[in-house]
Specification:
The complex is a heterodimer of chains A (about 130) and B (about 850). With about 130 residues, chain A is an alpha+beta fold. Chain A has a single domain (about 25-125), classed as OB fold (Dihydrolipoamide Acetyltransferase, E2P) (Beta Barrel), CATH 2.40.50.140. Chain A has helices at about 5-20, 30-35; strands at about 25-30, 45-50, 55, 65-70, 75-80, 95-105, 105-115, 125. In chain A, a hairpin with a 4-residue loop joins strand 4 (about 65-70) and strand 5 (about 75-80). Chain A is elongated. The model of chain A is unreliable at about 120-125 (pLDDT under 50). By secondary structure, chain B is an alpha+beta fold. Among the domains of chain B are: about 1-195, no CATH class; about 430-545, no CATH class; about 565-665 and about 785-795, no CATH class; about 680-780, no CATH class. In chain B, the strands form five sheets. In chain B, strands 6, 7, 8, 9, 10 and 11 form a six-stranded antiparallel β-sheet that branches. The N and C termini of chain B lie far apart (about 80 Å). Classes of the chains: A alpha+beta (about 130), B alpha+beta (about 850). At the A-B interface, helix 1, strand 1, strand 2 and strand 8 of A face helix 14 and strand 3 of B.
Amino acid sequence: MKKTHIALLVLVAAAVCVIVSMFGDMSTYETFGTAAENPGKQFHVIGVLEGDRKVDYDPQTDPNHCSFLVRDKAGNVKKVIFNGAKPTDIEKSEQIVMKGKMDGDAFRCTQIQMKCPSKYKNDQIAVGNAS
Amino acid sequence: MQTQFIGEHLLPGQLGHFFVVLSFIGSLLSAFAYFRAARCETIDPALSNRWLAIARNSFIIHSAAIIAIFITLYYIITNHLFEYHYAWAHSDRSLPSKYLLSCFWEGQQGSFLLWMFWHSVLGMIVMFRAKALESRAMAIIALVQVCLSTTVLGIYLPGDLQIGTSPFLLLRHQMQEAPIFQQADYLSMIKDGNGLNVLLQNYWMVIHPPVLFLGFASTLIPFAFAVAALWKGDYKLFIKPALSWALFSGAVFGTGIMMGGAWAYESLNFGGYWAWDPVENASLVPWMIMVAGIHTLLIFRATGRSLVITLFFFILSYVAVWYSTFLTRTGVLGDTSVHAFTGEGKSLSWQLLIFIAIVAVCGYGLMIWRRKTMPRIKTEEALWTREFWMFIGSFVLLLAAVQISISTSIPVWSPLAKAITGKDVAPPIDPVAHYNNIQIWVAVFITLFCGGVLYLKYKQTSLRSIARIFSIVLGVSIVLTISTAVIQGIDGWQFILLLFSACFCITATVVYAFSSQKSLKKMGPSLSHFGFGVLILGILITGRKKEVISLNTLGGILPLGETDTRKAMKESQENVMLYEDIAVAMSDYWATYKGDSVSATDPRTFYKVLFQRRDSATGKVLESFSLYPDAFINPKGQEGLSANPSSRHYWNRDIFTYVSSVSGKPNEVRVSQATDTFKHFTVHRGDTIYLSKAFIVFKDFNTQISDSRYTAAPGDVVVGAQIEVYNLEGKINTVQPVYYIRNQAENFIDDTLSSSVGAIVRLGKVIPEENAADIQVKEIEQHKRWIVLKAIVFPHINLVWAGTILMSLGFLLSMWRSISKKGKALKG
């Protein structure tokens, strides 16, 4: 066997290990209900804005606090707290994808991504701070 | 009944359609003729030459037609002919003319056209220079142009099938159901277009797509030569052109990718230049494979080894380009990408999948067909040779590209994973950490190889001859590593390791360039490797030491024993509220929002923020500058803002700011609203009251009143409250509101906190049983204008840009050398 072949085998084996282990990094899409079963662990939750699409954000008291109601795919409505400035146009979003975890009865999210109705507007993303 | 529409300009569209069809037929004819020319090349040279003439002419016609399409579309956009969907969707009347070009590449068809344009330009050069390989390489190039032309063809087949979308589609055809198009004079109602996405209204968006697409297009040429070599069964002729073009691709493609990073840094509020976004990854992967191919081709040129993997890399790089187009253009990435283009739906997906299959079959099919006749060297290479380690390095690049592709493609394979495991797989929660944790090891390996392998020679290296110089390099790089780590404060052993490998790469390439290569002509490899080392060093320092300075530290300025979790949380928060004219501390600076401005010609609002650095002892201003982060307020049809950053550049760091929220409408009259009532606070000695622009501490009661506003009278019960006033800069005042009872009536002497704070404080009453005071505050000027700002310091970001530029220059230097070298295809 050539040295090259041995080296390649070692590299491929290492790469396979890395790739297998990286599946642990990957998240899953959940609902509020399933996310609550694993409090403290972060998930992706997809939902739509509820409560007359009202978003509470008062930068004069706290520029890093924004909260609103979201209905997930299973139909549950939960309060979502986002530690960051209000994402632009969130009121108009068709769908929002949130990364975060359940904290008591509220969902604390660190990142929000939105789908907006206009075909000609790119998707938006907003990043807050993990708390 | 056919409606006669009023005011439409149909001629440009008809011309455009004609040119689209012409370019398609031109490429088809050219591909066919080149194919025939290649088939009869040896049997009947005269016939072959006739086919060649037809092929060349049709390719020239094809290229001319593409330019004509461009001109027609540009005419439609500049003249605001909104009856055309493309003009309506991507431009409007208010768009500054410098951004008119950006409209081209905002849309799907425009960017395909740009891609085709570069292919045809590069194809022309190949046509005149490729000589013996011309017919075969050009047959491939023309075939690819046939595929690309179909994306703008816009043919509708029965059964809802559609091949491509024409950029000259009329608005009334695109939206046939809309009632407005029932009226003959509908155009009089469409006054303006939809406009260009505000994110793209930036000079980087004018220059970065053409460069990036030239990079994309350039990967076609090494692919075409690899296929041509396989087809002809000649593996010598292709080395020189493939190497020159691959080096060109490495330079231009690499520059294009980092220009995308510069665009993200300058105009998006990502807070950085690289986010491992799927669109970024999709262009990085083919580049990495191309670079791997360059190195294995060098091995093949010098030793005759590694032919198979070289061809494999060049083919894979081009397949990856098409795959990345598939990822970013069809909407398959869906929720995972910030700037994936909106999809044209299923038909484009199938179209692109078929093209990927065509490219892969052309390449890999030929490789399988030729597998027995490809030259191979049976003997084993020695361990300490350049070819062995260069090969390993290229393979590491391939594996890294595979990892990035798998993670980026999650949305592609997650339906399959769901069918098997039942889990709905989502991308990693923190994608940046996910990629960084893996790719840091790739970076360590590659930078070590970049520095070390230069010292090895092909076929045989005497280790003793390089031991001395190598130990010097090692010593210098260890010293560099330690000093950089200490000065920059890099910690964490894996980062120290990466720092070492970058320092090693930089030292080794510099020493090699001046000790071995000496003449500038030969310095291509060491220059590009040096640039790569600098780039990695820059990435490491900016990534590790990037610091958000706009921390909300109110309440943390005095050690007031804040245990409240909400307040503690606030301290770690990264947006800061700036009221007009009130200075807020940010790291070494005081930042003050000084107001905003708009201009008639620019739709943006600019926010002036004054930064001052003061001497902490004397308070003297040492440095003062203003930043103007800007934002589109309520861009077309949307509420809210779309912010653009503004940065202060130093040689060793950037201060990067953007507004994340602003008060009301710009230039709205400032409301000077007095709150009607006093707010009540019951406080004990030492307690703090937070106001919007200051905080006050109640120190103690005082019965010895000496206030000019109070004259003592017998029988008075009098008490004052000693109150200290602080703003973020420290203590600014001491005040003493007075409370007294005279003739059984309560009297108050209010005090003003200070002229800058604008609040009135009153001692409402004393609560003896609690030993507390009722302090009342009325804030006068509460509703000032404000912005919410985020500010980040990026140390040594210039290393990132400089590294990229040097690396690309190194590629170009090598390319120039490869082109100017005469004949010597295979050494020894």
